[in-house]
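Q: Predict the bound structure with iron/sulfur cluster.
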Amino acid sequence: MTSHLDATALAEAGPTTEGDAAWQDDVRAGVRHVRDLAELPLSPAERAAVQEAASRHKVRIPKAYLDLIDWKDPADPIRAQVIPSADELVASEGELDDPIGDHDYSPVPRLTHRHADRVLLFPTYQCAVYCRFCFRKESLTAIGRGYTREALEPALAYIAAHPEIREVILTGGDPLSLPDKALAEIRARIEAIAHVRLLRIHTRVPVALPARITPGLVAALQGRLMVTIVTHFNHPREISDAAEAACRSLRQAGFVLLNQTVLLKGVNDSVEVLEELCRELMYRLGTKPYYLHHGDLARGMAHRRTTIAEGQALAEALRARLSGICNPVYVIDLPDGGGKVPLGPCYVEARDGESWRIRGLDGEVRDYTEIAGRR
Ligand SMILES: *Cc1c(COP(=O)(O)O)cnc(C)c1O
Ligand code: SF4
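A: Predicted complex:
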């Protein structure tokens, strides 16, 4: 048995080492329980919704993230992502507990295998911050389900028995909410499996609890494997000096940084916001915009979902304005396990044999005749 506790729980319990003091303070001074929300300057509507909304999805907000909220703005994009709202209580027909079909493709506990060469591994179902729009919130409401060595044994045995698996994606929950020791142990177990080439970590810690990216955490992840950290920034206001420092540490450790963004109505569904976000991600954080996700069918989230047509218009505008490396791919994760399918705009207007009509980035349609080698 290693530890039932995740790092945020450890912060509440202590003891601390010097390098960990900063983020542990952030956790302790943040929102840890529903009752902590009462001390925030919430609107009467938010206050009325808090108890019930919090019963649907856990509440946790580190101080570093709370401090980014402009409380004078009722529609603040940081506030919208973490403060429970009455809108969440309205479930729409067709919304799902498992919006992307994780469970249908889970041959053993804590693992999802949908694409031959890569698996999702869930070392913990706890997070440093709980986002109201989370597509895994139904998994995360279960009490506990933190990391233990025993809980991962069947998943690790499965990976070892499947030589086609080249990438192991730690997700959850938030893997970087685990203690360094647990991360080092998981990394060592995975790198002992010879056919695994790359370790990927999907995390919101650089956004919400950036001080957690300590030298100890970085060292825990270094070893034989290529490491890719996939961050989750949704708004340019989340790019703080602390987030920049966290990303710099991760890059200097030799990790590849990518970012996924969830398209959220009222948070980032404007060309200007997404354009600034993608530029700052690449130019300031060195984090390549990877996916722009269409909002999943998570329960009670209709108020944050755009239409697909709105998403496509945004993706087309971004393609015209941003360099290739600053451009994310707009995708929808199909509910029945169909995977992440690109929904980006289609530039082909018409085709007749080898003659194509293709729209340019300036909107003008051009003729293009293909000339290809023949057998
Ligand atoms: C998202 C996801 C992946 C990773 O997909 P990429 O397109 O490689 O980022 C792998 N497996 C499952 C089940 C997923 O949902
Ligand atoms: S950090 Fe990720 S897994 Fe956790 S609540 Fe937010 S979106 Fe969901």
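A: Residues 127, 129-131, 134, 136, 172-174, 204 surround iron/sulfur cluster (ligand 2) (CB under 6 Å).
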